[in-house]
Description:
Chain A is mainly alpha-helical. Chain A is 42% helix and 7% strand. Chain A has a two-stranded antiparallel ribbon. Chain B has helices at residues 55-79, 95-101, 111-125, 150-160, and strands at 11-18, 29-36, 39-47, 88-92, 129-133, 161-163. The chains are: A mainly alpha, B alpha/beta. The interface between A and B is large, with 35 and 41 residues. Strand 2 of chain A pairs antiparallel with strand 6 (161-163) of chain B, so a sheet runs across the interface.
Amino acid sequence: MDGDSHYTWAIGSNEYLIESLRVVKQKIEPPNLTLKSKITSALPSGYKPELDATNHLDDETTILYMQLIGILRWLVELGRIDICVEVSMMSSYNCMPRVTHLYALLHIFSYLQANLDWRLVMDSAYNEHLPEIE
Amino acid sequence: MPEALGLGVELTMFVDASHATNLVTRQSRTGVLIYVNKAPIIWISKKQNSIETSSFGSEFMTLKTGVELLEGLIYKLQMMGVPIEGYCHTCVDNMSVVNNMSVPESVLKKKSNSIAYHYVRSKCAEDILRITYENRKTNLADILTKVQVGSTKKAFWDKIMFPGD
């Protein structure tokens, strides 16, 4: 940790993430999509998936969408709490996703690519904000 | 009660709701974060089924979900021989929820709210948990209900995650 001298236990999902990014890039090659760089938030600011009025995806891309959601859900389970809300929001559209919903998912993956090694702090003085129990 | 096999753990729970954030259906979002000692163990972000007319109502539904999860976690820990020290600190960022939970005879008009209230209240009476107020700005469950941006995002994440080695 920067500047701090104490150590902490942390869990990360780095290896799985790198592998899944490789798979995702492979999968989005035929629809001719790419991941962006320098992304700081998991979803575009002010993005509301429920207000989306673009076309529904065809069957093949819908399957891709479901696969991507599956990968993201597992990442959240492995400790990427930072995308928990976003993934939960996007998985509501799992059965009939629209075009920009898929773009939003790729935005999440771009965010993950830019923030590869975030870890979840498990136990340390780092969490001193928790109330003390007497 | 299974025999304790080790030292006890302390539980802390953060709950939050974002009222009517879905602009089409006006459903709310539940966010629950449960700590065992100082490690986050359960994190959940879920769209609520009901459509609440007040943030008070959606906050109550969240609290109910949170307490259900907490109960499950307590059973699981006890079965593994991990005793629980004291009660679970439950942090809510809605003052009227805190006030209501401290009054045993509170009468709520809506049935769904009333059921949620009595369920959580019964757990309070068993001293499984106690409700405390946590400022909106420091309630960690906030990150599980809203999409965070910029500096607020950073302030929250600094408490939970860190980048790199």
